[in-house]
Every structure is written in C-alpha cells, then in structure tokens.
Specification:
Layout (H helix, E strand, L loop, with lengths): L1 E2 L1 H17 L3 H20 L7 E6 L2 E3 L4 E8 L6 E9 L5 E2 L2 E6 L4 E8 L5 E13 L5 E7 L4 E5 L8 H11 L13 E7 L11 H7 L3 E6 L5 E7 L7 E2 L2 E2 H18 L3 E7 L3 E5 L4 H13 L10 H11 L5 E5 L4 H8 L3 H7 L1 E7 L2 H7 L5 H26 L2 E6 L4 H14 L4
Parallel strand pairs: 3-11, 14-17, 14-19, 19-20, 20-21
Antiparallel strand pairs: 1-10, 2-4, 4-8, 5-7, 5-9, 6-8, 9-10, 9-11, 12-13, 15-16, 17-18
C-alpha cells in the first residue's frame, strides 16, 4: 500500500478544521473519515497482481544509437487501472522515461515505450516493473513488482565503416573487377592475355601459345576462401585508455572493418578473444553473417586485469587454424609482455602462418616528446622518447621473427590494418 500527496492534503485540511472549531471530538471524526476514505479507495483500486505484462521491440543496437522497447500492460480485471508505472533498467542502459502514468480500462491494454540510449557495450536487462495502482479518489494505491524480462545487446560501434567503400574499391582493383582492370599478384588463375614487354616470362602459357600462335601469359588474382583468424587480446593491457577510449574498443573497431572487408573478399574470418581463457569464439560462421556474429560476440567482452597467457594463446591459434592462414593479433606492444610471452613462440606461428600484429599507439606520447618549454616538459619528453624507443624496438623484434606490425593511433588503426591485409593480398602472400 502507498499513500499519495492528496491524502496529505486531506489530512492538512482536516487539521485546519479541528483547529478552527477546537472541538476534541472532531479529531476522531476527521481521522475516521480519512481512514474510511483511504480504505475505500484502496479497495476500489485495480489489483496489481492480476496484470499481465509483455514486451516487444529492439533486441540489439549499436553503442551510441537509440533502441526502443514497448511494454504492454494488459488489465484482465473489471476495474479501470489508474497507475504509475516505473520500468527499471540497469543504469548504463540510459532508459527514459523512468516513470509513466497509464489508464487501462477493464479488459483493455496500454502500451508504454521506453527509449534506451546506452553508454556501455554489453547486455542491458530490464530489472523489474513496479506498478502503483491508484484508487478512484486518488488517496491510496496498491503497489507491486512484476517481472517482464527483456534484454538488449549493445554492440560495439562500427565507426570505421566510413573507410569501407575506399577499401572495397581497392579490393576490386586487386580482384580484377575495377574499370582499370588492374591484376593482383596472387596465385589463383584469372585469365589469359597476349604477352607485352615487361611481363614475367614465367607466366607464359606455352600450350595456349601453341594453340593461338601468339605468346600468351596467365594473369593471377588474389586467392579466395582463405582463412583469417583474429586473436583479440583481452588481458590487462587492453584496459588502458588512449584518447579516452579503451584499447580493447579501438581493437574491436579495427576487427569489424577487417571482418567486413575480408568477407567481401571471399575469405573466411574466425575470431578468438583470449587472455588466460577464451572469452569469445566465432568459428565457421557463414560469410554473409560473420560480421553480425563477430559484433555480437565482442559486445559482452570486457578487459580482464590479468596477464595474457601467450602459450595458451599460441596453442589456441594453432588448434583453430589448421591450414596456412593469416593470424591477426590485436594486442599492445608492451615490452615485458611481448618479450617474455609472444616472442619465444612467434617463430613457430610464423613458420606455419602469416602473422600480422596490430597495436593501438598513443599519440599523446608523440606530443609529449615534442614539448621542451621548461624542465618538467623536458623530463616528460625524455620519458616519452624512452617509451617510443621501446615500442620501436619491440616492433623490430617482431618483424625479425616473421611478423608484420601495424602500430597506429585509434582513429587510424582500422584503416591501417585493412591496408596491411590488402597489401598481403596484392603480394600473393594470402
């Protein structure tokens, strides 16, 4: 049971009457009348437990976008429901409005729309629905909590989508579909054409030359249906923020662009998110659905404050990629973690697969290294130069071990990673 503000006003009015006439018996009369009115109002209020709640609407949305969920309130009782409804969601869901008034006639229904503007990735769930059924006099109300479960999965934002048309245009050039009819240097046969000066003599097709009585050469294009395994490091270094954004979120954006591009190129994309255990896995998803599957799998991943187990990560990569593949490792170029964990195991991976290491660089280090205004700035610049030198040293060590390294700020990492993938396609290494 709950009392409304109208009850307080009625009690205040009764107190004024008692003070005006100063008759003690009026206290009993006023309080009795007020109790009878509250009891009658409470008895006439529509029952809360009999209500039937259901939901419909969006089940997923991108971070920063708006989702709508409709709550249906069905009143099977004969009395009209006059109620205040509080639809409670977890705070990060950004649910509005928090409360709404509704009037539902007996046997009728009402629909309440809740707008969600989440500020974090992951699953946002409805906690409970609290209904306060107010009586016809507006003095008292029945109150109860009802369950109406619903979950909206908030996917990582695909901000790098703007780069996709440009990368697809270059992909068409490599694949021989662009107007310029440029050919890649892949290993999959594409077509025959007449020899021109400058062509590699090893591409001459002698059988076709004998048939056509003219020198014919084979043209090649990058192979399709190649496997790409994206290894997303979710260890402690992924929790660091660069430009206010966690490294893990920047790596997710790069993963989405690479997945979209590779799927359009006809390659198969798998994903493993790993630190000490597998946090998410997408293996064998069909190409039309792989981008959605990867986005949904990454939505619930959060950085774990543990050191990534490089040995287990390498084992997971070798187990998943049984044939020669492109393994893309999105991690941080942390000297201690790389030297002690990844570098000893990289030669084995590089012997069987093409390795591409992508990392989120911090542009604040470059800015700090350029400042020389006072003594404090000089000390900061020295520290920044030392960090940049260590990062460059790790990059060189990775390249010597057979990996290609992409180290770029968060806003440029997705495009740089996509370019590295296309370079490998053009060179026939994928």
């Amino acid at each position: 049971m709950a009392l409304t503000g109208r009850t307080a006003l009625a009690a205040l009015a009764g107190a004024a009457v008692i003070l005006a006439f100063r008759v003690p018996v009026l206290i009993l009369v006023v309080n009795g009348l007020l109790l009878v009115a509250v009891g009658a109002d409470l008895a006439l209020a529509a029952p809360v437990r009999a209500l039937r709640l259901s939901r419909s609407g969006d089940t997923r949305c991108l971070l920063g976008e708006r989702a709508s969920v409709v709550l249906t309130v069905a009143n099977p009782a004969r009395r009209t429901l006059r109620a205040e409804v509080r639809d409670a969601w977890q705070p990060s869901a950004g649910a509005l409005p928090a409360r709404a008034r509704v009037r539902v006639p007996g046997g009728g229904q009402a629909w309440l729309t809740t707008a969600l503007v989440p500020d974090r990735r992951g699953d946002k769930t409805a906690v409970a629905v609290t209904v306060r059924s107010i009586g016809p006099l507006g003095l008292a109300a029945r109150q109860g909590r009802l369950s109406a479960p619903w979950t909206v999965r908030v996917l990582p934002p695909f901000r790098s989508r703007r780069h996709l048309p440009e990368k697809l245009s270059r992909l068409r050039q490599l694949d021989g579909q662009h107007r310029a009819l440029l050919r890649g240097q892949g290993s999959e046969f594409d077509s025959l054409r007449e020899y021109v000066i400058g062509d590699d003599v090893r591409s001459i097709d002698w059988r076709a030359t004998a048939r056509r009585r003219d020198v014919m050469v084979r043209t090649w294009r990058p192979e399709r249906d190649r496997q790409i395994l994206v290894m997303l490091d979710t260890g402690r270094t992924s929790a660091g923020r660069v430009g206010g954004v966690p490294r893990l979120d920047a790596a997710m954006d790069a993963t989405l662009l690479l997945t979209a591009l590779a799927a359009r190129a006809g390659d198969r994309v798998d994903l493993i998110a790993f630190d000490r255990h597998v946090r998410a896995r997408v293996v064998g998803a069909p190409r039309p659905a792989v981008l959605s599957a990867v986005a949904q799998a990454m939505a619930v991943i959060e950085p774990e404050l543990v050191e990534t187990d490089a040995a287990a990560l390498s084992s997971a990569a070798l187990t998943t990629a049984r044939h020669r593949s492109l393994i893309v490792l999105l991690t941080d170029l942390n000297p201690a973690a790389i030297e002690e964990g990844l570098l000893p195991r990289l030669p084995l991976l590089a012997a069987r697969h093409e390795i591409l290491v992508a990392a989120v660089a911090d542009p604040a280090l470059t800015e700090m290294a350029s400042r020389r205004a006072d003594a404090a700035d000089i000390y900061d610049a020295a520290a920044a130069e030392q960090a940049l030198a260590a990062r460059q040293r790790i990059s060189v060590l990775l390249q010597r071990s057979g990996a290609r390294v992409v180290d770029a700020p968060p806003d440029r990492l997705p495009a740089a990673l996509a370019d590295a993938y296309l370079d490998l396609k053009a060179a026939g290494r994928l």
